[in-house]
């Protein structure tokens, strides 16, 4: 799985996550190092993520609330509204259009310029 964040003027590094993303992994490897400090430095910005269980777990909601992170309410089953889904589609097309698309994670990671967490 690949995680990344975008806004009008900013983007995060791409992070390749081995296995499934649970609430603890999301908090420790994504939110803490990449999101929370950025949002605290930009209090006018709001976090938007979908309704995946790793995002909506009670521990996650409490974690974000304790750090005064504003979260945009998100309708269920609405991937077309999510900007990042369009970014993933474009990225997927570019990787698949390569003369020899990567077949395994290390090659894909190099192709994406991401890092493995």
Describe the structure.
By secondary structure, the chain is mostly helical. It has one domain: Nucleotidyltransferase, domain 5, CATH 3.30.420.10. It contains five helices and three strands. It has a three-stranded mixed beta sheet, with no helix packed on it. The radius of gyration is 15 Å and the shape is globular. It holds the Pfam family DDE_3.
Whole-angstrom Rg: 15 Å
Q: Please state how the strands of the largest beta sheet are arranged side by side.
A: 1-2-3
Shape: globular
Number of helices: 5
CATH fold field value: Nucleotidyltransferase, domain 5
Strand content: 5-15%
The CATH superfamily name is: Ribonuclease H-like superfamily/Ribonuclease H
Fold topology:
Elements: E1 2-3, E2 15-16, H1 23-41, H2 53-56, H3 58-66, H4 83-96, H5 105-112, E3 115-116
Helix pairs in contact: 1-3
Please outline what is shown here:
The chain has 117 residues and is mainly alpha-helical. Helix content is 46%, strand content 5%. It has a single domain, classed as Ribonuclease H-like superfamily/Ribonuclease H (Nucleotidyltransferase, domain 5, 2-Layer Sandwich).
